[in-house]
Amino acid sequence: MQTVELLPGVTTERTVREVWRRLSDAGLPSQAAHRHPTNRPHLTLATADTLVPEVLVRLRYELAALPVPLRLDGTVRFAGRTPVLAWAVRPDEALLRLHEAVWRTLRDAPAGGRLNPIHAPERWKPHITLARGRHAACPGAPLFSATPGGPADVLTGQWVRARTYDSVVRSASPLGV
Predict the structure, then answer these.
(1) Which residue among 87, 97, 148, 177 is least enclosed by CB atoms within 10 Å?
(2) Under a CB-based contact definition with an 8 Å cutoff, are residues 21 and 78 in contact?
(3) pLDDT digits (tens, 9 = 90+) for 133-142
(4) Please, are residues 161 and 2 in contact by the beta-carbon 8 Å criterion?
């Protein structure tokens, strides 16, 4: 399976990694424990069986819209085989348009194989994963506050780059200009 992912700017990445560290320091599951070199804060736009070269060309065209605004706002928990604690991404129009364009590009390329339906525009729940596992839970205190007295667990920034991740060979490659 191959993904199309957005990467946040340096400040946002640093902040998410700090949240990972805080969760770990509290003895909670955290993405900080995932030591693979490709592990970094990201937003998955779509996954497909494969990304053929002509699709990569089309994706680069769509991803020329970067950077786009980023807003993390509150935590969300996903139940399932592996529960997930995540920082919710509140998409604006630019992010929604970009996601739709990436989805449409992959959907219209039959050589790419099956798409994961959880990333379909009508079902997509944009987020940055903070922790995975049975005990992934939100600590009682806010994970982050941008400014003293400011709203807890809210962060703004930009999605600045894109990459693909290949889950078979466990490698990431830059995608875009």
Answers:
(1) 148
(2) no
(3) 766 555 555 6
(4) no
Cis peptide leading into 8, omega within 30 of 0? no
Q: For residues 14, 20, 21 and 27, what is the CA-based torsion angle, rounded to 10 degrees? A: 170
Per DSSP, the three-state class of 77 is: strand
Calpha distance 173→177 (Å, rounded) = 12
- Angle 46-62-73 from CA coordinates, rounded to 5°: 55
User: Which residue in 87, 77, 102 sits closest to 41, CA to CA?
Assistant: 87
Q: Which of 119, 7, 110, 108 is nearest to 63 (CA)?
A: 7
Question: How distant, in Å, are the alpha carbons of 5, 34, 39, 101, 129 from that of 143?
Answer: 23, 19, 20, 32, 13
Say which residues have a Cβ less than 8 Å from residue 116's Cβ, sequence separation at least 6.
1, 46, 47, 48
